[in-house]
Amino acid sequence: MKIFHTKHTKNTVIIDAQDEARYWNVLRRVQTDTGFIYDGYDPEKDPLVEHLHDWCCKHSVPAGAKILEPGCGGGRITMVWRALSKRYRWNFQHTAFDHAENAVRLAQERNTDAECVVWKLENLPLDSRRFDVIFTHTVLQHNSGWKQDKVLPAIHRTLAPNGLLLLLNEKTFSSLEDGALSDPFFCDGRQSAGTAAWWINRVASVGFEFLEYHKSQYTFRRI
Hints:
disordered N terminus
């Protein structure tokens, strides 16, 4: 674990490097990690397009829905959403944001028909808008537990009534590293990722109805 600093309060809080915008704003990291796409990548051919289309149909997402994508990085998944919207004429109003300026700059270059902005996840809502769907892909697990405690209620406030939260590819543990049988709510030392039961309980506790889980994909409804 890399530590930039510690904040001493009644309980010491360790600020992990991944909690900081400057960690993700390093241009090399954007190019090789959050913004990486292989040569010749075509979002139109990404199987995630069909997967998200099926999800939208299953959960009756309305045409023209307002989609918010926190932690967009360099905009690869934003490209997928735009390809989905175009192919099936969903006409989504897509807003993507990240706290790393270099990532957002790249995301906007790749997605000229989406709104890409620099923002901090814990500072939601962006404005008075309420979104029909909030989607994350491998995002929350990079925020320590104390930060998730701010982020999840902010996401809840930013969704429209009965709005949907889709968490995709958040890291899940199935057992302890030493091979011992794990508690269903076991999480890592940063309290940033855990078992499926841990994720479900954590998100539901701030006012979400759990709808479904399948292979590290979680769907919740705002209640």
